Amino acid sequence: SRVVKLAVIPGDGIGPEVVAEAEKVLDAVTATSDVTFDKTRFSLGAARYLETGDTLTDDDLQAIAGHDAILLGAVGGTPGDPRLKDANIERGLLLKLRFTLDHYVNLRPSKLFPGAAGPLANPGEIDFVVVREGTEGPYVGNGGAIRTGTPHEVANETSVNTAFGVERVVRYAFDLAERRGKKLTLVHKTNVLVHAGAIWQRIVNEVAAAHPDVTVDYLHVDAATIFLVTDPSRFDVIVTDNLFGDILTDLAGAVTGGIGLAASGNINPDGAFPSMFEPVHGSAPDIAGQQKADPTAAILSVALLLDHLGLTAEAARVSAAVETDIATRTGARTTAEVGSAITALL
Ligand code: NAD
Ligand code: IPM
Ligand code: MN
């Protein structure tokens, strides 16, 4: 039977709480199939840094890279915690994993499940996927500051957009659109960010020529936030850069019933490196340790993981259990109660 080597990074705050439920579901859904998950747990994050001073060692990175896939909860401490000033958990751990493992597709589906308590009065059918570029943009750390702390301080953060990097993620987005509703929306800010905007628009136009069945349109990111609230059913596949994609997907989570439902995959489509699956949300220090977090995003991330590994039947069972659970939700439940309810529905 098949053995999948899974690296598990519970992380900080609500990360361990939601990962425990995701593992509950994973264990249950694979109990009856002929695939075994061989799990290795990695203690990484703000808590580990405060204990040892390590963020992500080369040994950690090498060990993680030797797995078939990664499940991550969330990492990061309370924003502004002075003890974490030099740690840079987000860059030194999360982004280092995404960059080193070449997760150039950050896949973030948004679906309004029947019964989900979204904030919109007439949402229509919401079912789209944001294909967020994962290895470039303003995230690469290309910049610097001089004369820090003086009135003449200058701080630059340069957005990096390469033809190689933009083209590969745009191709992925078109292929996905072919398999879905055949509509692709480029979101950018070409009216102001003219250099980055031009390369994105040109490459989308070029790749579009090979996909005549896919309807292509374009929105400036500010207008896209309007339509995500007023007319979200217009979207099928959105392709966008790393930073716009980050912002749009928190908004998309809120619109589809809460950030506690939003799953994601950091994908290396070539399969050269393990892909990493995690909720869109963070470590939520404001509710950590209280069993208040919704583990559904982590559980749906397991569905994405199973799908990525070709375990489509298992993935479908997890998604179906989540759908039923959302449709029948009443009253407040603890994190563990939600996980157990979904497990029971498998
Ligand atoms: P956050 O997503 O952690 O929290 C934002 C709000 O959403 C909070 O009110 C929180 O309680 C709520 N929330 C988040 N997840 C929830 C869930 N599953 N159920 C119910 N409510 C939920 O964002 P933040 O406060 O900006 O960030 C906190 C820390 O997490 C920071 O250190 C940040 O850098 C980090 N972070 C990490 C990741 C990651 O590891 N992938 C992602 C985002 C933020
Ligand atoms: C996310 C997070 C990360 C990002 C941070 C924590 C680096 O917000 O996964 O959406 O900006 O990508
Ligand atoms: Mn984010």
Automatic annotation (TrEMBL):
Binding site for substrate: R98, R108, R132, D222
Residues holding Mg(2+): D222, D246, D250
Presence of the UniProt keyword Nucleus in the record: no
SUPFAM superfamilies for the chain: Isocitrate/Isopropylmalate dehydrogenase-like
Residue span(s) of domain Isopropylmalate dehydrogenase-like: 5-342
Keywords, sorted A to Z: Amino-acid biosynthesis, Branched-chain amino acid biosynthesis, Cytoplasm, Leucine biosynthesis, Magnesium, Manganese, Metal-binding, NAD, Oxidoreductase
Top EC class, one word: oxidoreductase
Major site of localization recorded for this protein: cytoplasm
Compartments where found: Cytoplasm
Pathway it works in: Amino-acid biosynthesis; L-leucine biosynthesis; L-leucine from 3-methyl-2-oxobutanoate: step 3/4
Site entry: Important for catalysis: Y139, K189
Manner of cofactor binding, per the entry note: Binds 1 Mg(2+) or Mn(2+) ion per subunit.
Cofactor: Mn(2+); Mg(2+)
Binding site for NAD(+): G282, S283, A284, P285, D286, I287, A288, G289, Q290, Q291, K292, A293, D294
One annotated Gene Ontology cellular component of this protein: cytoplasm
Catalytic activity: (2R,3S)-3-isopropylmalate + NAD(+) = 4-methyl-2-oxopentanoate + CO2 + NADH
Listed EC numbers: 1.1.1.85
One example of a Gene Ontology biological process annotation: L-leucine biosynthetic process
Gene Ontology molecular functions: 3-isopropylmalate dehydrogenase activity; magnesium ion binding; NAD binding
Similarity section: Belongs to the isocitrate and isopropylmalate dehydrogenases family. LeuB type 2 subfamily.
Protein task: Catalyzes the oxidation of 3-carboxy-2-hydroxy-4-methylpentanoate (3-isopropylmalate) to 3-carboxy-4-methyl-2-oxopentanoate. The product decarboxylates to 4-methyl-2 oxopentanoate.
Subunit field text: Homodimer.
Protein name: 3-isopropylmalate dehydrogenase
Protein's organism: Microbacterium foliorum
Protein's gene: leuB
